[in-house]
Amino acid sequence: MNEINQLFDSKLICVNLGLERFFEAMCDQNLRAAHVDWKPPAGGDVRLMEILRKLNS
After folding, report:
1. What is the dihedral angle through the alpha carbons of 53, 54, 55, 57, rounded to the nearest 10 degrees?
2. Torsions phi, psi of 45, nearest 5?
3. How far is residue 24's CA from residue 56's CA, in Å, rounded to a whole number?
4. CA-CA distance, 21 to 27, in Å (whole number)?
5. Distance of CA 44 to CAs 3, 8, 14, 38, 49, Å?
6. Running along the chain, 57 residues long, what does each successive block of 10 average in pLDDT?
7. Among 44, 43, 40, 37, which residue's Cα sits nearest to residue 20?
8. What does the pLDDT read at residue 1?
9. I want to staple 17 with a disulfide (CB 3.0 to 4.6 A). Which of 2, 10, 22, 38 is the partner?
10. CA dihedral for 42, 38, 22, 20, sign (positive or negative)
């Protein structure tokens, strides 16, 4: 059996980034899931993200 088929035959764990409601919906369906409370850097402000990128280089 190739690796792709093995993937479809195994139990997967979903990883949810951001909106907790999606995680809750997966749990409501008895899916194995992990939630990561993630938000974009600088609140998604493109100008501030560019400033942060320059500071980190």
Report:
1. 90
2. -75, 110
3. 35
4. 10
5. 37, 35, 24, 12, 7
6. 81 90 96 92 92 91
7. 37
8. 61
9. 38
10. negative
* DSSP notation for the chain: --HHHHHHHSPP-EEEES-HHHHHHHHHTT--EEEE----GGGG-HHHHHHHHHHH-
CA distance 33 to 4: 21
pTM score:
0.58
Q: Which residues of 9-21 are buried (b: 16+ CB within 10 A; e: fewer)?
A: eeeeeeebeeeee
Domain of 22 in residue numbering reads as 3-56
Q: Are 23 and 31 a contacting pair, CB within 8 Å?
A: no
User: What is the number of structural domains in the chain?
Assistant: 1
